[in-house]
Amino acid sequence: MTMQAGALGAIQRLESRSDEELLRETKHRAAARAILGARAAERYDAKQARTYFNEALAGTPPRERPALRQMMKASLALAERRPDELREAMESMGQTPPSSRQLLVLRLMSLVSPPPGSSTIVRARGVLLLIAIVIVLIAIGFGLAKLVALPLGGVGTFGGLLLGLVIIVAILGVLTLLGRRRQAKAQAAARAGP
User: Fold this and answer.
1) Measuring CA to CA, which residue among 3, 173, 79, 181 is closest to residue 189?
2) How many Å apart are CA 8 and CA 22, to the nearest integer?
3) Which of 34, 111, 123 is nearest to 74 (CA)?
4) pLDDT tens, 90-136?
5) Could you give the CA distance from residue 163 to residue 148 in angstroms, rounded to a whole number?
6) What is the rounded CA–CA span in Å between residue 185 and residue 163?
7) How far is CA 4 from CA 52, 61, 190, 193, in A?
8) What backbone torsions phi and psi does residue 160 show, to the nearest 5 degrees?
9) DSSP assignment of the chain, as one string?
10) What is the pLDDT of residues 40-84, one digit of tens each?
């Protein structure tokens, strides 16, 4: 993110530092707090992100506050799982908005794991949805296990459930590995430059 020189101009230089180093930063405290706020938003910790951004706003000169507010708006939209506001905030900052697939994942995330402070009904819906997803995955694994074991003489119900669970865990493990490789490749390409 390109920003004017000043209190927030140090953001790019400080991005590679750890959270502990950023907390100890005194010279560019506002920039360090803005980075900590963005990192907290990536962990979906809206309360902590808001605290860090408010500290950053307090230490930022008035002419740089609009840029920091835009950054804060985008980060809090991510942390509070509001995909439409995230897209709007990213576009207003002049950055490429998240893809439709990324926004869909954020919408699903808001259903399964609603933001803190949500009503009991919304949280219960998330738990029930998560239970339904697990049951569907086990049923798919059971079906695959029965199908694979059919030419070999079949398998019992308990054996099918156990084998199905192993199949689903293996599939999820492979998908996780491929996803992390793809993410690492995208991050490397982003660091290489525009």
Assistant:
1) 181
2) 14
3) 34
4) 888 888 888 888 888 888 888 888 877 778 998 899 899 999 999 99
5) 10
6) 33
7) 20, 12, 21, 19
8) -65, -40
9) ----SSTGGGHHHHTTS-HHHHHH--TTHHHHHHHHHHHHHHTT-HHHHHHHHHHHHHTS-GGGHHHHHHHHHHHHHHHTT-HHHHHHHHHHTTSPPPPHHHHHHHHHHHHHSPPTT--HHHHHHHHHHHHHHHHHHHHHHHHHHHHHHGGGT---HHHHHHHHHHHHHHHHHHHHHHHHHHHHHHHHHHHH--
10) 888 888 888 999 999 888 888 888 888 888 888 988 888 888 888
Which pair of structure tokens corresponds to residue 9? 């101009």
- Token pair, residue 126, equals 């998330």
Location of structure tokens 């219960």: 124
**Paired tokens of 16:** 């590679």
